[in-house]
C-alpha cells in the first residue's frame, strides 16, 4: 500500500510542479489542478495516477465533503492528501519528505511541510518528544522550510521534552524506571548540549515551581542521564536564581558534581569546557588538586610548613617553605572498586612518591601516641584517597582507608626535621588539627 500511495504522490508532485510553475498562489494552483484535470490536455499516465489519487482522497475521508465525485467538489486539501498518505502511520512522513524534494515550487513545498506538521500535531506521536525531534531534524535537512515553522516545531519539542524529563521528579522511588525518559536522553546524547540546555531551562521552570530546590538537587543525583548530561544539568541547576539563596541545595549540587568527577569515565566522557566549568564550582583546594599541574601540601595554620622529603633522611617532613622542593605532580587513578585515588611525586626528588609503608599489625601504631612513623619518599607509586573538608583536605591510604596522613606532633622532631606520620583513620576527629592540609598551586615552581 505504501508503495502505491507513494506512486500517487510522486506523480502529483511532479505534475503540480509542471503545471503550476512559479505561481505564488497555492489556492490558485489547486484550482488550476482541477481545471486542467477537467480539460483533456493531460498526459495519460498522470491522468491515471490522479485517478488513483481521487480514490485515496475519497478513501482517506479527510478534506472531502462527502461528494463521491472528486472532480466536481472543491479541491481536496493538501492536509487530506497527506493524511491519506500517512494513514495513521507517522513513519510514512519520511517518505513524503523525500518526495517534497522533487517539487519545484516553494509554495507547494512549504504547504506540504505545514500539512505534515499539522498531521503530526494531530497524531499521538506529538506526545513523544523523540518523534518531534526526528521531524525537526528531517525538516532541517530540507530546503526552504519556513523559519517560523522550524521554530514552532522546536518550541513544541522543547515543551514536550521538558514535560517528559520532569516525570522522575514526581516520585520518591529511586528504583522506578522511566524508559521514555531514558530514550529521550539517549537521543539527546547525539545532539549538541545546546538542545539539552534549552530543555533544561524549561524543565527547571517546571520542577522548581513545584519542588523545593534541595529536593530537585537530590533527585538529580540519581537521574538516569549520561555523565556529560548530568554534569551539564547540575551546572545549569546551580545557575538558577532559586539556588542562589539556598546553601543546602547548593551543597547538594556540589556533592552531585563531586560524585560525577570522581567516576573513572569522567575525563574521557565529559568535554573540556564542561569539566572546566565544573572545577570552577569546587572549593579552591579541590579545584587546585584537579587543575594545577603541580601542587604543594601545606599546614593549615602554619604557612611555613610544607610537605617534602626530609633534608637528612628518606622520611617525609613538614619543613619551611621551599616551593621547588615541595612541588608535587598529581597522578590520578581509580582503585578496583572504582574509587578515585591520587599519588604525588616530586620531580625535584627524582620522581619519588609520598609513600606509606603499609601497617601490618595494630602494634605498628605506638600504643601511647597512636602514631606510626611510616611515611617515606620512595621510588614506587602509592595511592592516597583525598577527602574534602571545609578547611582543606585529609589524605587517607587508598587501599584500606584505615590510615590518615598527619604532622606537627613535637615528639616527632629531630632537630630541623619535623616528621610526617600516619594515624588510624578512626582517630581522625581526635587529631583533626594534625591531619588536615591545604592544597596550593605550585605549578610555577621549577
Ligand atoms: C469542467 O469542465 C466543464 C466543461 O468544460 C465545466 O463546465 C466545469 O466548470 C469544469 N469544472 C471545473 C471544476 O473546472
Ligand atoms: C534533495 O535532492 C537533492 C538532489 O537530488 C539531493 O542531493 C538531496 O540529498 C535531497 N534531499 C533530501 C532531504 O532528500
Ligand atoms: C539510584 O537509583 C538506583 C536504581 O535506579 C538505585 O539502585 C540506587 O541505589 C539509587 N542511588 C541513590 C543514591 O539513591
Ligand atoms: C596554577 O598556577 C598556574 C601558573 O601560575 C596558572 O596558570 C594556573 O591557572 C593555576 N591553576 C589554578 C587551579 O589556580
Ligand atoms: C611510643 O612513643 C613514646 C613517645 O615518643 C615512646 O617513649 C615509646 O617508646 C614509644 N613506644 C614504642 C613501643 O615505640
Ligand atoms: C572494595 O569494596 C569491597 C566491598 O565493598 C570492600 O570490602 C573493600 O574493602 C573495598 N576495597 C577498597 C580498596 O576500597
Ligand atoms: C600544623 O601546625 C600546627 C602548629 O605547629 C600543628 O599543631 C599541627 O599539627 C600541624 N598540622 C599538620 C597537618 O602538620
Instruction: Order the strands across the largest sheet as they lie in space.
Output: 8-6-5-4-1-15
Please indicate the count of domains.
3
- How many distinct beta strands? 15
- At the first level of CATH, the class of the largest domain is Mainly Beta
Low-pLDDT runs of 5+ residues are 1-8, 17-73
Instruction: Figure out the total of helices.
Output: 19
What is the typical, i.e. mean, pLDDT?
A: 84
| Cα-atom radius of gyration | 34 Å
- Label the structural class: alpha+beta
Gross morphology is: elongated
Write the CATH architecture name of the largest domain.
Trefoil
Keywords: Signal
For this entry, give a set of tags:
binds 2-acetamido-2-deoxy-beta-D-glucopyranose, Trefoil (Acidic Fibroblast Growth Factor, subunit A), three-stranded antiparallel β-sheet, alpha+beta, signal, 446 residues, 3 domains, six-stranded antiparallel β-sheet
Write the layout of secondary structure elements.
Blueprint: H1 2-20, H2 26-38, H3 44-60, H4 78-86, H5 93-100, H6 106-122, H7 129-141, H8 147-166, H9 179-188, H10 193-210, H11 213-220, H12 227-238, H13 241-244, H14 247-261, H15 266-269, H16 272-280, H17 284-291, E1 294-299, E2 306-309, E3 316-319, H18 323-326, E4 328-334, E5 340-346, E6 352-356, E7 371-372, E8 375-378, E9 384-388, E10 393-397, E11 403-406, E12 413-414, E13 417-418, E14 421-424, H19 432-435, E15 437-441
Antiparallel strand pairs: 1-4, 1-15, 2-3, 4-5, 5-6, 6-8, 7-14, 9-10, 11-14, 12-13
Helix pairs in contact: 1-3, 1-5, 3-4, 4-6, 7-8, 8-10, 10-12, 11-14, 12-14, 12-16
Bound molecules: 2-acetamido-2-deoxy-beta-D-glucopyranose (7 copies).
One 2-acetamido-2-deoxy-beta-D-glucopyranose binds at residues 335, 337, 339, 399.
